[in-house]
Hints:
By secondary structure, the chain is of the alpha+beta class. The chain is built from twelve helices and 13 strands. The protein has one domain. The strands form three sheets. Strands 1-11-12-13-9-8-3-4-5 form a nine-stranded mixed β-sheet. Helix 2 (19-40) packs across helix 6 and helix 4 runs parallel beside helix 5 (189-208). The two termini are 17 Å apart.
Amino acid sequence: MALDFQQIYIKIHEIGATARQRRERLESLRREARALFCQTAQDVDALRDKVESAKAVDPAIRCALPLKEALDTHHPMPGLPLNATLIAADGSQIPLDRHGPVQYCLVNVGAIVLQPGSGLTPQTFTDSQLLYDDELYVDGNPLTDGMVALKRDLDERRKLDELSAQYPAPVITFTDGPIELWGAKDGQDAAFSQSLETYKTVLSRLQTNGVTTAGYVDKPAADLVVRLLELMKLGDLSQVENLRAQHPFRGVSDRWLFGEKGNPLLEPGERSAVFQLQARSEKDYRGLLALHFFYLNVGTRGHPWPVRVEIPRWVADDPEKLDALHAVLIEQCRVMGAKPYPYLLHRAHETAVVKHEEKNQVEQMLLMEIRRAGEETDDGSFKQSAKDLSGRGRFGQ
């Protein structure tokens, strides 16, 4: 038996015994957060001043920065843009596996182009990059899973840039996940900085070409707006010790705030005000590349489903682009029915995903070619062989 179910049961029983207490506490925090949201919604200048005060204490504070709109602003779905080209991209990867018989990585990016109303069928594109030998190292260090994921994210945006240049305006592009590039968590700061500069160059080309681009975050766990409310609740921030650790509304999420069942701040199809992202990365995304976001309720009446949509400043500053993106995302989500998600992102994922049998085929092709060329090959690790034995499969290893 792999698990001591008696120990697990005792813990689960303890969790159940305290469930009511946790629920009552969370409900109280939610009521207080919602009341503070309504109380401060119109005082945008005070909210902005509070963020500036927080930055003076901790420049890396991460929260929403209001612009000109009140917190409780909500925009209904506008009309769909005419003759817009829609492009979505997604990526997957096979990371380096030191237990495998051959060392390689693979990054696969899928993209789909749709021209609504044209009568043309959607076009799909795939870019598959196999990394081997010296390509598996950055500054002398082996590629980490994080660096492979970083390359995937960068290649997704590159694909959007490449394809968008082939179509007349207006062009609307989006990927799954944030626009903000994540990385530099594996000791690869120099490599991340280089990737970041390339990434910003790609974003700048999209801006120069007038392309609308966005990152779609489904079921966001962030508390960016709630964090802003927490800063207001904390009072004089110069007197707060360890500001980053103070979370008086811990457990309350933006997703709940904008999508409270029975009384959502956003009705179906509505979007929130646009906020700027205050974060450590602010110094990396300046001017027209500055990161912004809004919340969008892609759900239905009685079943709200707020998502976060990240956009650069050049989209946030252009009402026409903003409205077009808003309308297109709602329409795309409606195609998927009761489980709203942009249809094109779903198709891009289907195009990009590498199946297990495809991974095995790539591995066998690579081994055969290496052996044909007379190069030395290796076996998989005995640890992996033991794990692969029939009946010995394990989850989470």
